[in-house]
Specification:
25% helix; Hypothetical Protein, Haloacid Dehalogenase-like Hydrolase, Chain: A, domain 2; eight-stranded mixed β-sheet; 15 strands; seven-stranded antiparallel β-sheet; 25% strand; single chain; Rossmann fold; alpha/beta
Length: 256
């Protein structure tokens, strides 16, 4: 029986501002695994592309949720998919494009990814020109919306019943399936490994981490986190560039 599960957000939490993982943090996570703890990651990132160096290749990984929870995996097994149906995604894209033609829209619909008039295949590396309205007929993991500075967009006016949106700290909008949220991914991890919520420790920094930090038995906000994230956490550690995760693990799990 596992005694704890540690779940990490990646960008600006586990990863430094240079998109690296410090040796101290890596060693602390490996030490947790050696002590019988499970290690997982819940990230807004996509799956890595073919040939792309993956940021957790050298770390233990018992669980990972991509796109905030659109794809939830335990080991090599996908245990849940929460996608936006293709027809719904195209409907959203058409309405936004007609109302706000300067809006930039990126779309992940594995194995394809669309950005700036081009799609590329994650599995094969194939690239080709494509318009937003000729996307391959796959359900969508995530859409990323970058507004024109002059636009005041109320996204809820354009969403279908299955979709929700949130703003990241840099002002970018993300559209996902209403079930593709980090707290649901955390709950699936709890159920899959039969670890009670009180024995789960979650680390995060952005507004989409708030519900996850509240649901976990222990929520840890990074020193660089938004104020609303810190208010939701049980602990506040140092920033992602100041060994925040390593310090918290050593001080609270190993009493070093």
């Amino acid at each position: 029986m596992y005694n704890k599960l540690l779940l990490f957000d990646l960008d600006d939490t586990l990863l430094t501002s240079k998109k690296t993982i410090s040796l101290c943090t890596s060693a602390a996570i490996k030490a947790c695994k050696e002590k019988g703890m499970l290690i997982g990651y819940i990230t807004a990132r996509a799956r890595p592309f073919r040939g792309e160096a993956f940021f957790i290749d050298n770390l233990p990984c018992d669980f990972i949720a991509y796109y905030n929870g659109a794809e939830i995996c335990a080991g090599d097994k996908t245990i849940e998919s929460n996608l936006i149906p293709y027809k719904d995604a195209i409907s959203i894209i058409q309405k936004l494009s007609e109302a706000y033609p300067k809006t930039a829209i990126g779309v992940y619909l594995e194995p394809w990814s669309y950005m700036r008039g081009e799609i590329w295949n994650i599995d094969t590396g194939e690239k080709q020109k494509c318009s937003l309205f000729d996307l391959p007929h796959y359900d969508v993991q995530r859409m990323r919306i970058v507004f024109d500075a002059d636009d005041d967009i109320q996204l809820n006016d354009y969403l279908t019943e299955e979709a929700v949106s949130f703003l990241t700290s840099d002002g970018t909008a993300i559209i996902i399936n209403k079930n593709a949220v980090k707290e649901r991914a955390l709950k699936k991890a709890s159920e899959w490994f039969q670890i009670p919520l009180c024995d789960i420790i979650a680390f995060g920094d952005d507004v989409n981490d708030i519900a996850m930090l509240k649901m976990a038995g222990t929520g840890v906000a990074m020193g660089n986190a938004a104020d609303s994230v810190k208010a939701a956490a049980d602990y506040i550690t140092e920033s992602n560039d100041d060994e925040g995760i390593c310090n918290w693990i050593n001080n609270n799990l190993f009493h070093m």
